[in-house]
Amino acid sequence: MRWPPAPWGRKGRVLPILVLAACSGPQSMLDPAGGQAARIGVMGWILLAGCAFVYAVVLLWLLWALARRHRWVEPGGVLPPQAGVERRLTNGLVAWVVGTVLILFAFVAASYAVDKSLTHLANREEVVVEVEGKQWWWTVRYPDDDPSRSITTANEIHLPVGVPVRVKLKAADVIHSLWIPNLHGKMDLIPGRDNELFLTADREGIFRGQCAEFCGLQHAHMALDVIVHSRAAFDAWKEAQLAPAPAPADEALARGQALFLTSACTMCHGIRGTPASASVAPDLTHLASRRSIAAGALPYNRGNLAGWIADPQRIKPGNHMPLVGVPPSDLQALVAYLDSLK
Amino acid sequence: MSSLSRNAVSLALLGVLLLAACEREERSYRGEPVGEVKPGAIVQGTLYAGAPSPPPPQRREYEGNAYHVSEGKRLFEWFNCSGCHAHGGGDIGPPLMDEVWIYGGELENIAATIVEGRPNGMPSFRNKIPDQQLWQIAAYVRSMQREVRKDVAPGRDDHMAVTPGEQNQPVTPPKPGGVASPSSEGRGP
Amino acid sequence: MGPRDGVSSSELRDGPSLGEEDTMRRLERTWGTPPGLWGWLTTVDHKRIGRRYIATGFVFFLVGGVLALLMRLQLAQPENTLVGPDRYNQLFSMHGTTMMFLFAVPIMEAMAVYLVPLMVGTRNIAFPRLNAFSYWVYLFGGVMIVVAFLMNTGPETGWFSYVPLAGPEYSPGKRTDFWAQMITFTEVAALAVAVEIIVTVFKMRAPGMGLNRVPLFVWSMLVTSFMVIFAMPAVMLASSFLIMDRLVSTQFFNPAEGGDPLLWQHLFWFFGHPEVYIIFLPALGMVSSIVAAMARRPVFGHVPMVLALVATAFLGFGLWVHHMFATGLPHLASGYFTAASMMIAIPSGIQIFCWIATLWDGRPQWTVPLLFVVGFVVIFVLGGLTGVMQASVPFDLQVHDSYFVVAHFHYVLIGGAVFPLFGAFYFWFPKITGRMLGERLGRWNFWLFFIGFNVAFFPMHLLGMMGMPRRVYTYPAELGWADLNLTATLGALLVAASVALFLVNVLVSLRAGRIAGPNPWNAGTLEWATASPPPSYNFAHIPVVEGLEPLWDKAGPLGMVHGLRVEEREVLLTTVLDAHPDLREPSPRSTIWPLLSALAVTVLFIGSIFTPWALVWGAVPLAVGLVGWFWPKRRHVPPEPVVES
């Protein structure tokens, strides 16, 4: 299964020319695609409007104070405060404080209201996703009462449109933070704690999330793709993910599989349907159905996959995938096999 | 000693300390190509003929580097070394935190043991663990028995505390590797 | 040690019986610092220590700035490979650490060390030896972390070093230990200065300077010092926990053994948020001083201003959790902190109003210090407003840890602290050096800074909303962040050029600046009553204060008190509320012991990075140092009640 290229992939160079246009994108809070993000967006506009008003008032007051006709004073002289003016200024100060308090009250009330409406959206769930943050990638699980029907994948969350989703957040090592700006604000993944995030996507699309809490060397390359599709497409995707990896269809792929199973790959990666069952690195059972590799560092394609396996430390220095040193002849067979894992 | 030469000595000492610090803190992700690991000489006794040969360059690079040792600690768990050796205390595999070494306790001996495998249960990890990771694990194993500098050895980990961290292990007098045969320790099959 | 004329001369006192020339000559002999290196190492003169404190802080500002430039160059284009992730992480950790711990807090305290004794009209700061000790500890701690950084052992986990990333498992080696001990160094130094300032303000004010006549800068430093005393222990506790977790395997932050990573965040931010006000309140004091002098009238609303300072200090301790909204706290708790965080805007608003009102009613003199104050208002208010926006939990969940926050706190800290500080440099440079800073270069300095700053940081608001998280060493081209990042980098270069101009201005003005005279701005507070630069004894006679702006309130010369010894270092203590003369108190002479004690502390702290036994063995030289420091003097003059004033 292949997804169309991201709308931002091609327009990336053109968009920034128009700042406003640039604000919409696969990873922008200004382009909400879910109930939570939309409410927060409203909150943001309320705050922005209020603050812009206050800023304008302050600047006008400052401008007036600097540009008006001032009392005359000889050089080095001092202007004594005049009782009447002081009284007027004191009244102004009182009005100023009252105005500040009123605006802040409005802000607090609006903030509470939006917070409450977010709580109303919470605690409703039809789909549960477990996301575990690790240095520097994400495990994504769809648990099921029937263990054989639960799905484990990596760096990619699929959501059905219009359905409330509970995302359970865990950290395996250090603190991470899941931020999918188009859908919701961020929530930390903290070792020893269980956090939750409730999402409801309003429209289909492909979005991007990223770790927002500094988590070490490759914090910059700890992203994930969020794919929102129709309920039917989502169910189809789940069924596809449930299947074990396809058996090699021909000699070349069989050679690739043998290479995988006899090399260092199996020490960390698992592929369901083969003896490879390690789980400290992303599950590769359906690697070729994913949009990106190395937690969003590269778009998925054969060339990138080969480059990644050949030298992961050049693309993501310090990440936990070592330089294995696969000979070029073997690399092609290995990549061909992995590319068959749709 | 004149004050000048004393100053020179303390400056040199400072320089050595600084160099040690730089070596300790380097983060090297690729590792130098070190070629295939040869099975190290299994030292059977403490008697040597002639002067001991200089330690191989990997020793300084890996044993003196906190990042490598800490990566070794992570891989020790990831590759399930603990499954047999527990956290160094030994289970169905021999303990790694004591001074007893069946096949030699130098860095290259340990690396060779991992690559080659050993009779009675130690599998061979040839082609399964890339070179750099191999040296990292070996360096970590060395840290379990306090054979690496204290400022390089790992501290406690963020899980249930099995040991207080390699840097806080009780001091055992360092001995050259391989003082006892498996049978004499009663840990044979 | 100054020569003495005879036993009886120690009883000589200033007053009508002693000629003016003779008084000054004897005071200079008593209070002066011995010449040469020995004098330099042993001095306890608050002006000399304050000067080197300021200079050192500024050097760290330059270091932090260079680090920032390197970061901006790395981010100038997507997928840049100028610096790798390891180096970049050290760069931003060092940048934050240097700017917060080694520049912002120390330089504010340094300004106070120099100015507060002059502003309250006394001969030296309280506890002058502690002051010297504080400087040396700060210097050694700062040098330690810079040397560590140059040796690839710089901090790598950000200026707030969240565990477990900063814990023993995920930050191997000694990088984080150096960071944690740097905290201990700087906080010891900061606490020492805070104690000195509080005692100086409470007990050493000139007669007549009741609490209602204390200048706003002194008030702001007093409030700041109290904040330091309540906030800094939290971070020292946290950093000590951290180094214990790392060095002796305690489990404070390990959830598997009953610890909690959030404990670190609570302790750190209980310090970390007041820290912002610790940096910002002194700057407000500087603004008040500049505004009064440049508007040619006292600041409007003195009492509301003081109350606003105090209110800020109290509120500042009640909003640390707004740094932790995304950790999944209960809604009720975060709701409380939303309200508390917004409330802080009220006292800030009061102060902004009062300054503008002062300018409105006065007659603004368009000098460089005033330019910086106006720049401060324009930038700081914007930063404050984005702060109000982030007090709202839902909105904060989006912008937290994004470039929006980076923009916000640079607007607040550079706008709110660095602009006033530069204004203060221009304002008090003549007092400190006797020469004016150049106005022409100053205007260039200001405009480049103002424009460069906005070009550098305004785009970051947008970047944050477009999804760019902070602390990333690179970013993909497809997300459309490249142009705004390039703009920010260009702005950073403008700021760098501006700071370079400032340095040129300082160097040129030190040699060839216009001679200032005692009061070049015709300002009203006491520091302008003495020569520029002030003599070692500050004032030949302790002045008597009859109003808020003593030099404006009285046309003729200031009243003065007589009767302090001139052959012994002696200061006048006054009562806390009304500043009635109370006691004459001896003040220490130059001594090497603070330096030796600071060296012993340095050995202890650095040793404890490597072994807990350093605490035991390092205590021995420290004890020797302290015994030497406090060894009773034979010629001790006991404090005496004041007989006449």
Write the layout of secondary structure elements.
The complex is a heterotrimer of chains A (342), B (189) and C (645).
Chain A: H1 7-11, H2 19-23, H3 35-67, H4 83-121, E1 127-134, E2 137-142, E3 151-154, E4 156-160, E5 164-171, E6 176-179, E7 187-189, E8 195-200, E9 205-211, E10 223-229, H5 231-242, H6 251-262, E11 292-293, E12 298-299, H7 302-310, H8 312-315, H9 328-339
Parallel strand pairs in A: 1-5, 4-10
Antiparallel strand pairs in A: 1-2, 2-3, 5-8, 6-7, 6-9, 9-10, 11-12
Chain B: H1 3-25, H2 57-63, H3 66-78, H4 82-85, H5 107-116, H6 131-144
Helix pairs in contact in B: 2-6, 3-6, 5-6
Chain C: H1 20-31, H2 36-42, H3 46-75, H4 85-120, H5 128-150, H6 175-203, H7 216-247, H8 261-295, H9 302-316, H10 331-343, H11 345-361, H12 368-391, H13 393-399, H14 403-433, H15 439-465, H16 482-512, E1 542-544, H17 550-553, E2 559-561, E3 570-574, E4 581-586, H18 593-610, H19 614-617, H20 619-630, E5 640-641
Antiparallel strand pairs in C: 1-2, 3-4, 4-5
Helix pairs in contact in C: 3-4, 3-5, 3-16, 4-5, 4-6, 4-8, 5-6, 5-18, 6-7, 6-18, 7-8, 7-9, 8-9, 8-11, 8-14, 9-11, 12-14, 12-15, 14-15, 15-16, 18-20
Protein architecture, described:
The complex is a heterotrimer of chains A (342), B (189) and C (645). Chain A has 342 residues and is of the alpha+beta class. Chain A has 3 domains: 24-73 and 80-121; 127-242, Immunoglobulin-like (Sandwich); 251-339, Immunoglobulin-like (Sandwich), CATH 2.60.40.420. Chain A contains 9 helices and 12 strands. In chain A, helix 3 packs antiparallel against helix 4, helix 6 (251-262) crosses helix 9 and helix 7 (302-310) packs across helix 9 (328-339). The radius of gyration of chain A is 27 Å and the shape is elongated. The N and C termini of chain A lie close together (7 Å). Residues 1-21 of chain A have low confidence and may be disordered. Chain B is an all-alpha fold. The longest helix of chain B is centred in the N-terminal third of the chain and has 23 residues, at 3-25. Residues 33-48 and 177-189 of chain B have low confidence and may be disordered. Chain B has a domain at 56-183: Cytochrome c-like domain (Cytochrome Bc1 Complex, Chain D, domain 2). The N and C termini of chain B lie far apart (59 Å). By secondary structure, chain C is an all-alpha fold. Chain C has helices at 20-31, 36-42, 46-75, 85-120, 128-150, 175-203, 216-247, 261-295, 302-316, 331-343, 345-361, 368-391, 393-399, 403-433, 439-465, 482-512, 550-553, 593-610, 614-617, 619-630; strands at 542-544, 559-561, 570-574, 581-586, 640-641. In chain C, the strands form 2 sheets. Chain C has a 3-stranded antiparallel sheet, with no helix packed on it. A two-stranded antiparallel ribbon of chain C has the order 1-2. Chain C is globular. Chain C starts with 19 loop residues before the first helix and ends with a strand. The interface between A and C is large, with 100 and 92 residues.
